[in-house]
Amino acid sequence: MTNTSVTLRNSSQSPWRKSGQEVGELPRRMQTAELLDLRARETTLRQENKDLSRRHRAQAEEFEHRLLNSVQMIASLLSAQSRMASPEASAQLMIAVNRIIAFGHVHRRLHLLDHQKQVDVKRYLECLCEDLTNLLSRDSSADAIVVQAASCTIPTALGSPLGFIVSELITNSAKHGKGKIIVRFETPSPHRHLLSVADGGPGLPAGFQLDDSKGLGMKIIQALVQQIGGKLRIKNSDNGGGAHFVISFRSPTKAGNRAASVEAAAR
To answer: How far apart are CA 118 and CA 129, in angstroms?
Structure first.
């Protein structure tokens, strides 16, 4: 009897009671399982983000392609219309054609800078002016467009209005001027910039006032200069020939603040 009771008492402890080591291992196993589950979820989310980013880039490229095709189609239609219009109307239509094509060039150059917060101004202006030279060489007396700029970067959000300003000023100079067109970008002090376009034409008429200008191009330029918080000055070149346009503006000390405001204004 005694041996039997001792055996039962010992056997009753074995199936139901666990040692302290076994009890401590259970939470650790649960934690390990949770960590593995979290890592699996993280891997899945990263892959989903990559797939989403890939789809976004594909959609952006498709949109870009369709937009440029539409721009080219509109320019072609206006060009065809100009051939059937009166000389005065034809000249105005060709100005519109060049403006539309210039818009396409600016947009394409900026598209190449997607996901970049800063743009190299010198390189950007050189590429843009090369495009404009090819565009204007067919029907312009301008010999060349020369870019004079030191290495400098500005927020990419400022690149769009600056590109359109340069396009309009160069188109205006090619229309009224002759010889070289000089595009200069300077940074006299940190975050303060000067953009100028000068030509070798006859210059501005005596008593010219910016506010009296009725041309669409000049109104576009004024609106874009206001958009970047800049100031526009127009004068004749110091050597006595040609018009000289100077835009002064500041880039933000914190790129995000001003870039966001420019993007909001652009919308």
So the answer is: 19
